Amino acid sequence: MPASDRLSAIPSVSAILDSLPVRDLLVDHPREVVLSAIRVLLERVRGGEVLSVGAVSPSRAATVDAIVSRLPAEVALLEAIPLCRVINATGVVVHTNLGRAPLPAEAIKAIAETAGGYSNLEFDLEKGGRSSRSVHVEARLLALTGAECVHVVNNNAAAIMLSLAGIARGREVIVSRGELVEIGGSFRIPDVMAESGARLVEVGTTNRTRLSDYERAITPETALLLKVHRSNFTITGFTGEVSTAELAVLGKARGIPVLEDLGSGAFFPFSTAGIPGTPTVREALAAGSDIVTVSGDKLLGGPQAGIIAGSKAFVAPLKKHPLSRALRVDKLCLAALSATLALYADPLDASRRIPTVRMLTETIEAVRARAVRLVRRVKALERRSPGDSAPFTLSIVPEMSSPGGGAMPEVEIATVCVAVSHPLRSPGALDHLLRTGSTPVVARISRGKLLIDLRTVGDHEIAALADALHRVASAGH
Ligand SMILES: *Cc1c(COP(=O)(O)O)cnc(C)c1O
Q1: Distance between CA atoms of 234 and 206, rounded to whole angstroms?
Q2: Mean pLDDT by groups of 10 residues along the chain of 477 residues
Q3: CA–CA distance, 467 with 477 (Å, rounded to integer)
């Protein structure tokens, strides 16, 4: 159809608003949302899309009908589910899709206090003049990491981007082929490198990289030796990689700094709690890295942030880099980060009060006790409203959970789950019912069973979780 005919077939907004089904839609939905949805659909028609089914040359009336019939779905899209609280029963402690670290109560309080009023964000109360917003976390980070200088940005991706742009723009960065990682969707080391303006120089092979591979690749153009933590995968079998310490010796000898993207980078000594595999930031720096970058909301257990720690010669100039302003952290993040870091002053406080650290280090007995409480509570609900439940069974089973979220790919921690089964519903159907209830519960299905992993469920969530399970047991009765 010629474009002129097509345009003449386009109805007006008011013609659509006047139709009876749309008037009904306006009873339940705000006019602005319905108007927005109409405009989205009209834009598609203008763009050449034929909405009315079967019509080769759609009339204006047919287009109105087509738009009206699609409107409820378009309105539903615009009113998509708001951000809401969910119960994480997956056992994955650092779960990126579920918002990573739940904050400690101390951090939540700090956010509330900072959010509701003015603060000394960039104000020196002693001198009465301007100061830097990072002072509120710097002293704590220096003490915890042993670094000479630290800088905090929006997330770890930003920390890496800024470090590469600031130190290696227009020059070469050497990375092992075994460490060219992708951390979910858009974060891929080669792409971040290209965007920063640094040139990637790959060395070694996927499974083995030797020190001599790095050595041979060094040219007068080399600005950095980069080491990336394999956060979400492992390489096993015939493998070989160069340790931070070896790389640091080479870097020192040739006058080239070593940047280590630790990914999660622990602040708590998880290895002493029997969880191997993740060095602390302090250990990475002590091993010789000049700059280390980590996330704030993975194993640290704080708000989304990226921490750059290392020697003053490399980190201090990054604070003045033009990208720093675009990547800077807001006051609520600084309030939460400062309060979370304060808890690390005493490892016992860290393991009791920082939810991420607590969940990872909690004893199996404590997890089992929560499973027992949950089952008792659901049974009590069934006794209170008998008759409306099908023979729904809950059994307590030993299982394994994984820290996840690009934290410790090879580590599994013993846990206790409640397996849920129902004679009339598949595990997938039960899972869907739990996810779509008023308090959404995200569980996991393993070997044909729906599992509620109590390692990632808080004591305060047991009542809501029991209600959700009881509702699922009674659904359709
Ligand atoms: C998670 C991760 C990142 C990205 O960190 P964000 O804080 O999500 O930006 C980068 N590198 C590694 C190795 C990671 O594990």
Answers
A1: 11
A2: 63 87 89 91 83 64 87 86 90 92 97 94 94 91 97 96 97 94 79 92 90 96 94 79 93 97 90 81 95 96 98 97 95 97 95 96 96 96 73 91 70 93 90 92 93 96 96 75
A3: 16
Decide: 278 in ligand 1 pocket, CB within 6 A.
no
Domain with CATH 3.90.1150.180 in the chain: 87-94+361-474
Ligand 1 pocket member 183 (CB < 6 A)? yes
Strands 449-453 and 444-446, how do they pair? antiparallel
Going by CATH, does the domain composed of 87-94+361-474 fall within 3.40.50.300?
A: no
- Distance separating alpha carbons of residues 341 and 138, to the nearest angstrom: 10
Tell me the β-bridge partners of 124: 129
Other beta carbons within 10 Å of 130: 8
Q: How many angstroms separate the alpha carbon of residue 304 from the centre of ligand 1?
A: 11
Question: What stretch of H or E contains 393?
Answer: strand 393-401
Contact status, residue 396 vs residue 375, Cβ threshold 8 Å: yes
Q: Does residue 405 line the site of ligand 1, with CB under 6 A?
A: no
Amino acid symbol at 228: V
CATH 3.40.50.2300 corresponds to the domain 105-353:
no
Question: In sequence order, what are the residues at sequence separation of 6 or more whose Cβ sits closer than 8 angstroms to the Cβ of residue 16?
Answer: 22, 38, 42, 64, 67, 68, 71
- The amino acid present at 131, given as its one-letter code, is S
Q: CB of 406 closer than 6 A to ligand 1?
A: yes
